[in-house]
């Protein structure tokens, strides 16, 4: 294995991975293809990962099926499985430096933001463990005609967990932690654009298998292209598919799963609106909205990328937003004071710039940004971009860009603002800014979205998170996220 110099020094985490992780062990693949990791700042290939084949996927599913059917993991108590989640958290915490480095290299997240994100991920495992300890898996209920029945919660079975590139370690926690604590066996399929950090997670699992804390077969981690990934979705031994990614890919997975009525959980795209009401204090707005729209350089499904402002306050708000978004520190991601780094790849950079061109062709004007930041000549960067004069039905207002591109949309009155916010195929996140919290709460109830904030852009992933409409099915986080991986069985007793 080779290591690669980064601006953070020599990191053992940035190294070729020559094998695939099946059933808790690193083993040889049946194929010879590799997946390259390109550093989003240096634009250089810095490591390679062995690509899994369809045969590798089949081996992983078979191992998961055998482990689940034997019941060595599923038969443990919830408390015992929760203890293992705490052990996973400990193992990841010991690798925080590696994971922080990989967050910078794979996704372009600046060092300081990456550190916070990876620490949050460790906390997610512990939060899921704590929530699991409150769940009762057996409940007795009297029957109307007499007698008692027992309502049992059982694991859904073999889970295929498919994650995106924009937050691999966090997304693993959202899916694998609740699936494991529910008693499922898991085949984790990772994204080719961020192939290394899931290998660190695999190392942690491998250590726990060696120590006897997790049985063999329960967890596999594979990186593969779309065609191979579809063999995982269509495998008849997979009981439940949980996916995070684009709505287009979610529709494809749902269609494939429908052929055998497999259980599906989907966390998909977003085009979230932030409504600035006329009584909003701009000081409060600017404390959170710019970061809420440009987190991870906009590479986040929950980003607040539609800003709705009344015609009365439009000019005032636009000038304030230009100053705030323009002041976001952007540049070398190894500099901890930067908030914005590069996008994850050249392909994605081209896509985001293409959307800015589309917006201009549709009649929007660029009020800020619109291209590469001044003075930055390396990395896949797009400056924070504000588009003004955006029509609510235009492509830039309707389609997910996944970059630091914000559409400013003017509304006439409160009802019009709500109508515009709901004028979307998505319904994932959102925000309302007002000095009247009760009014903000009432507006929030009218927005068709799974999560919405009042006077903030805060997300707490230990609480239920998910979307309406084409933003997905099911919930992650909290007790609800664990229940996603539980089936309900009714046993009638005398």
UniProtKB/TrEMBL annotation:
Keyword Oxidoreductase assigned: yes
Residues forming the catalytic site: 267
Pfam family, one: Aldedh
Record's keyword terms, sorted: Oxidoreductase
Domain Aldehyde dehydrogenase: 26-491
PROSITE patterns in the record: ALDEHYDE_DEHYDR_GLU
Family: Belongs to the aldehyde dehydrogenase family.
Protein name stated in the entry: Aldehyde dehydrogenase
Gene source species: Rhodococcus zopfii
């Amino acid at each position: 294995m080779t290591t690669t110099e980064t601006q953070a020094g020599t990191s053992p985490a940035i190294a070729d991975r020559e094998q695939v992780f099946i059933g808790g062990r690193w083993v040889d693949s049946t194929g010879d293809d590799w997946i390259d990791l390109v550093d989003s700042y240096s634009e250089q290939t810095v490591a390679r990962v062995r690509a899994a084949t369809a045969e590798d996927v089949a081996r992983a599913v078979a191992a998961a099926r055998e482990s689940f059917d034997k019941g060595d993991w599923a038969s443990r108590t919830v408390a015992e499985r929760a203890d293992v989640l705490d052990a996973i958290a400990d193992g990841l915490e010991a690798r925080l430096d590696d994971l922080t480095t990989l967050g910078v290299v794979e996704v372009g997240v600046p060092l300081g933001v990456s550190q916070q994100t990876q620490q949050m991920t460790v906390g997610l495992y512990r939060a899921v463990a704590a929530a699991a300890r409150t769940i009762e898996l057996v409940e007795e209920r009297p029957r109307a005609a007499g007698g008692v029945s027992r309502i049992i919660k059982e694991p859904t079975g073999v889970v295929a967990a498919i994650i995106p590139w924009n937050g691999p370690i966090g997304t693993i926690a959202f899916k694998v932690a609740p699936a494991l604590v529910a008693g499922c066996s898991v085949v984790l399929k990772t994204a080719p654009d961020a192939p290394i950090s899931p290998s660190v997670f695999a190392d942690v699992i491998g250590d726990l298998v060696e120590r006897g804390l997790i049985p063999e077969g329960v967890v596999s981690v594979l990186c593969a292209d779309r065609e191979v990934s579809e063999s995982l979705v269509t495998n008849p031994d997979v009981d439940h598919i949980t996916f995070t990614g684009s709505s287009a890919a979610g529709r494809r997975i749902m269609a494939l799963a429908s052929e055998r009525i497999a259980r599906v959980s989907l966390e998909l795209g977003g085009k979230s609106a932030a409504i600035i009401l006329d009584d909003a204090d701009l000081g409060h707005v600017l404390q959170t909205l710019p970061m809420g729209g440009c987190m991870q350089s906009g590479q986040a499904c929950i980003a607040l990328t539609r800003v709705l402002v009344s015609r009365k306050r439009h000019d005032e708000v636009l000038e304030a937003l230009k100053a705030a978004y323009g002041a976001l520190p952007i540049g070398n991601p190894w500099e901890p004071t930067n908030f914005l780094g590069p996008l994850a790849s050249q392909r994605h950079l081209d896509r985001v710039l293409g959307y800015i061109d589309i917006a201009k062709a549709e009649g929007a004007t660029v009020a800020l940004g619109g291209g590469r930041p001044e003075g930055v000549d390396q990395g896949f960067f797009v400056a924070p971009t504000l588009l003004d004069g955006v029509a609510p039905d235009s492509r830039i207002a309707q389609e997910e860009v996944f970059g630091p591109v914000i559409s400013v949309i003017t509304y006439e009155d409160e009802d019009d603002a709500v109508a515009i916010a709901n004028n979307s195929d998505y319904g994932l996140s959102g925000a309302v800014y007002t000095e009247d919290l009760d009014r903000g709460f009432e507006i929030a109830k009218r927005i068709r979205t799974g999560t919405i904030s009042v006077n903030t852009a805060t997300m707490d992933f230990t609480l239920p998170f998910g979307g309406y409409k084409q933003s997905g099915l099911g919930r992650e986080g909290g007790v609800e996220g664990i229940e996603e991986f539980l089936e309900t069985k009714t046993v009638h007793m005398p």
